């Protein structure tokens, strides 16, 4: 049920948010809540899983071009840029030649903000 969160989305005006957490990426809809939580891997944030999810969301909401990336204060610039790139566009097989890839636009209009601070569990 990897894309069950995408299938559950029932909004007319998608307000996509990606919240960068130390232990995961929380992809959600501002009103509808969490779509999917993507845990951090030993290599860092799972940009492949994020890209796949962004493509699934784009397929359901092809007219939407905006997304908001919310970062914790200690998020590195490099991580922020990589995540913005994964939200903005994705490599997909070329329609003319499936052996080659081309860039597909996902959510190019990105706003950046501060993530709500998550309370550490004790």
Give a brief outline of the structure.
The protein has 122 residues and is of the alpha/beta class. 25% of the residues lie in helices and 33% in strands. A hairpin with a 3-residue loop joins strand 2 and strand 3.
Rg on CA atoms, Å: 14 Å
User: Which structural category fits the helices and strands?
Assistant: alpha/beta
Strand residue content: 25-35%
Number of helices: 3
Shape: globular
SSE series? HEEEHEHEEE
Give the fraction of residues assigned to helices: 25-40%
What are the segments in which pLDDT stays under 50 over at least 5 consecutive residues?
A: none
- Describe the strand arrangement of the main beta sheet, using strand numbers: 3-2-1-4-7
Features:
33% strand; 25% helix; globular; two-stranded antiparallel sheet; 122 residues; five-stranded mixed sheet; 7 strands; alpha/beta
Overview of this structure, please?
With 122 residues, the protein is of the alpha/beta class. Helix content is 25%, strand content 33%. It contains three helices and seven strands; from the N terminus they run αβββαβαβββ. The strands form two sheets. The protein has a five-stranded mixed sheet. Strands 5-6 form a two-stranded antiparallel sheet. A hairpin with a 3-residue loop joins strand 1 (16-20) and strand 2. The protein is globular and about 50 Å long. The model has no long low-confidence stretch (mean pLDDT 88).
């Amino acid at each position: 049920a990897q894309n069950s969160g995408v299938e559950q989305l029932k909004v007319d005006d998608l307000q996509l948010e990606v919240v960068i957490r130390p232990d995961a990426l929380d992809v959600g809809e501002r009103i509808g809540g969490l779509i999917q939580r993507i845990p951090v891997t030993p290599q860092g944030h799972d940009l492949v899983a994020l890209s796949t999810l962004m493509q699934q969301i784009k397929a359901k909401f092809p007219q939407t071009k905006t997304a908001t990336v919310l970062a914790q204060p200690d998020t590195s610039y490099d991580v922020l840029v990589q995540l913005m790139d994964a939200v903005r566009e994705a490599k997909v097989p070329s329609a003319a030649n499936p052996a080659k890839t081309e860039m597909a636009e996902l959510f190019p209009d990105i706003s950046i903000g501060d993530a709500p601070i998550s309370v550490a569990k004790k």
